[in-house]
Amino acid sequence: MSKSLSPKTPEILSARPRVNAGRKPTPFHARQVEKSETNDWTLWAGYSIPNSYTSVELEYFSIRNGATLYDISPMCKYRIKGPDAERFMNRFVPRDVRKIKPGRVAYAIWCNDDGHVLDDGTIFRFGPDDFRLCSQERQYAWLMDSALGFDVEILDETDDIAALQFQGPTTFAILEAMGLKGVETLKPFDLQHFSFAGTELMISRTGFTGDLGYELWIEPGKALELWDALMAAGADRTISPVGSLALDMTRIEAGFIQPAVDFLHAEHVVRHTRGRSPFELGLDWQVDFTKGHFTGRRALLKEKEANSSRYCFVGLEIEGNKPAHNALVYHKQKKEIGHITSAVWSPTMKNNLAMALLQRPFGVDITEDLWVEIYVDKELKWDRVMARAKIVDRPFFNPPRKRQTPPARF
Amino acid sequence: MNKSRYDAIIIGAGHNGLTAACFMAKAGLKVLVLEKNDYLGGAAVSLELHPGWTYSNCSYVCSLLRPEIVRDLNLPKYGLQVIPYSGGGVFMQNGDHLCNYNDHDAHRLELARHSKKDSEAYDRYSTDLMRQCRFIKPLLMRMAPDPTSFKPRDLGELAYLGKRFLDFSEAQMAETLRFWTMSVAEFLDEYFESDVIKAYYAGSGIIGTALGPMSPGTAYVLLHHYMGEVDGNIGAWGFARGGMGSISKAMAACFEDHGGEIRSGCGVDKVLVKNGRTVGVVLKNGDDYYANTVISNADVKHTFLDIVERDDLPEDFVRQVERFKIRGSSGKLNIALDGMPEFPQVPKDSPIFNGDMHFTDSIERMERGYDDWKNGTWSKDPYLDMLLPTRIDPTMAPPGKHYMTVFVQYAPYHLANNESWDGANRDAFAQTVFNQISEYSPNFKDMILHYECRTPLDIEREAGITEGNIFQGELTFDQLLFNRPVPGYAQYRSPIKGLYMCGSSTHPGGGVMGAPGANAAREVLRDLGARQTVRGY
Ligand SMILES: Cc1cc2nc3c(=O)[nH]c(=O)nc-3n(C[C@H](O)[C@H](O)[C@H](O)COP(=O)(O)OP(=O)(O)OC[C@H]3O[C@@H](n4cnc5c(N)ncnc54)[C@H](O)[C@@H]3O)c2cc1C
Known about the structure:
The structure holds two protein chains of two kinds.
Chain A: H1 10-14, H2 29-35, E1 40-44, E2 47-52, H3 56-65, E3 67-71, E4 76-81, H4 85-92, E5 104-111, E6 117-127, E7 130-135, H5 140-146, E8 153-156, E9 162-167, H6 171-177, E10 191-196, E11 199-204, E12 213-218, H7 223-233, E13 239-241, H8 244-253, H9 297-306, E14 311-318, E15 328-331, E16 335-346, E17 351-359, E18 370-378, E19 381-392
Helix pairs in contact in A: 3-8
Chain B: E1 8-11, H1 15-26, E2 31-34, E3 46-50, E4 53-56, H2 67-72, E5 82-85, E6 89-91, E7 97-99, H3 104-114, H4 116-140, H5 152-166, H6 170-181, H7 184-189, H8 195-206, H9 218-224, E8 229-230, E9 233-234, E10 237-240, H10 245-257, E11 261-263, E12 268-274, E13 277-283, E14 288-290, E15 294-296, H11 300-307, H12 315-323, E16 330-337, E17 357-358, H13 363-374, E18 383-387, E19 402-409, H14 424-440, H15 444-447, E20 448-454, H16 456-463, E21 499-501, H17 515-528
Helix pairs in contact in B: 1-10, 1-17, 3-4, 8-9
Bound molecules: flavin-adenine dinucleotide.
């Protein structure tokens, strides 16, 4: 068995360390504390970040109306380098990594040998032999195990990079005002390096709000400077930091799935039937059987050929205005056929949106007469509502400004 | 001569005997429990051996006790309170340590200090263990099916077992079969690379077992220690407030509340058998008591080799009982401390002190300790499971003082060269343990006010368990389920009509669990056609 690099630096061994708490502050913590009116924090992969700063509703509208800062430093970031980097990445994920050119970013999922999804994330390609994988859940152990026999170096960069998601219709204008020449050329999923405060600032035109927006990556020591520069440049363009709750609303509007919410890491489920294949999560487009072997290929090919997927994943529009959190889905109001994984009342679309996991053939061959059972709190009197639901395409929210290059200034 | 008649007599007031007694008394039967010691509880006992200090004399931590039993006997009403603890860890020879944190992220960061990869592998490790727990848990409170029988009930139970197995994916079935037979060292190698992390988790695989961490079969022993729970938290351990005797005390109170009768200081000498059926028992003092149903809480060897006449048993059965592995492998020290000992290599406020502490930082050291056992001596570098219950439980020592329990693996029952444990060897054994602790705690020895050292021989003398084997028989695959204790007699019945077994020698095995007692009561009540008080679960 190969040994991974462990932090066996002498200072750690001699310091008689006492891990005080699992919650680490991010490099932006100082500013977050200043901005937080609600003092409402949440845990993300071992870091504390704000759930909200002032009001979830106002923060939500800032994302769709102005420019917003959301701290994604807790995102797991792994650097994969070396002569076999491309081969390794191509075996790691079901999509064809060879098609991702240097300077580009791509959304990806990856599976175990059962063809069950472990996590989703983004692949940044810096050069022919140089990648970064960003994910919600920790993947270091899985990457290390997968790297057996490949000439690659895998480095956990999570703590070495501070990152902000900078999203909303005025974000481009603000970056431009900061004097970052060339941002206007960034197309969706492009990445580029800029110099900022004597260091390198990487900007990618990515994000999970489904809107115009960017992700900014910088060394932790310059994090506060970046924050301050953005806030200054955006002062006249409705800029504000936002917390996880507002971001989640936009995430659902954009139709993105989230691990531990819409599906579970397949290696962390006790009941093996809780693992989900890409076909069961509406991610067929991620699977490229023509590119050669990748982890999970045999199982997925078998599933595809036998048409044996058990579930399907759909977007729903639901009658009424009560979000269908954790609701069960019925056919003809009688037969239970699935459940809602994410739900939101969309203030922008003025629609009641949800994503649901349905048992096939429902959602595939049978798509009519679907109902959602919602429990509604009317001042502590609970009512049960059967609301009609309609399957619709995702993303629910898909404005032209998201793609326009160069982007509009508001 | 005492000619009292009972519906049932239970030999031994261990927690399993008491559990069986409670369920039978609840069914309205007239039940008598006879205990050889002057106190109750067997290996689940609290004793004041030094004024002001309560020792959990044998067992010391609680997790396995089935929640179904706690609830159905309403033990909290009779005074039982189980307080979970967390923390614990390993003091390492290089001056570092590994601490077990309750918070998942804190735990991950701590594991990552030793290996980043292991810190993530831990999630997969606990998921896989949890899967095995889910498989085995429902089998605990059921009779083990006899695969050679064609009785509808056995077939039904077998089908149930099969169905649970089929809940696994193919790969998981293969995993499960491997898991039940592999060594704990191999099992942990599949997840972890750090020696100290492996050593920390391997400990549960050897406790009470006359096998080394590299011996096949020890992975299951680890599971046996993981499948318990405190308030639904699988794998969690707790202290019974007031020591493990509080469990037996609560059971005894429940039993008496339902009209049961307990006599302590009453060692049973013989089971009386007439025409192949049990009629009662005779005590060592000559008293006799009569009942057509007798249930032995003592281990299977003591029961069938000592207190049942050999002529009353089929030869085949006796030979199988003789072959039953019940080798002593552990000792125990109970120590009264004048204060909190110092461990300078760990910060004072570390949660390590609130849980199970160890000094063995590699599996190899553990295995070397086992070599000593094979050579007929105690481990010179033993694996210790050391706790300070008084960090959590304020009832066991005066304020500011501490009670320390140290479980010691390995110590043989038979010393080489026929040497005796009594005298110099027992003292030397205790010194070995003290020396290991004081390597890490310079003021430890000065803090000792009183201690009590128990070798396997002492455990046998006190709890009556043959060779002092803490589980009343080893938990290896050949001695589990329908093979526990003896093939063909795994359903609590014996070759003698009316004579049953209810101790840890029976399915599902040792630990303060109560399941053998409850399962035995279910079978007895069935045979008697009495009201069934033990649920099928
Ligand atoms: C040192 C030690 C540490 C342990 N640590 C733990 C732990 O931390 N957690 C845990 O869950 N488990 C632990 N165990 C295991 C657990 O304590 C035992 O498996 C369990 O208590 C056995 O219960 P039992 O009722 O089956 O049998 P026992 O407790 O053995 O009860 C048998 C009873 O029968 C009596 N008896 C025997 N022969 C006769 C006779 N002829 N006449 C009358 N009475 C008789 C005995 O005196 C005894 O009271 C430990 C055991 C030991 C020895």
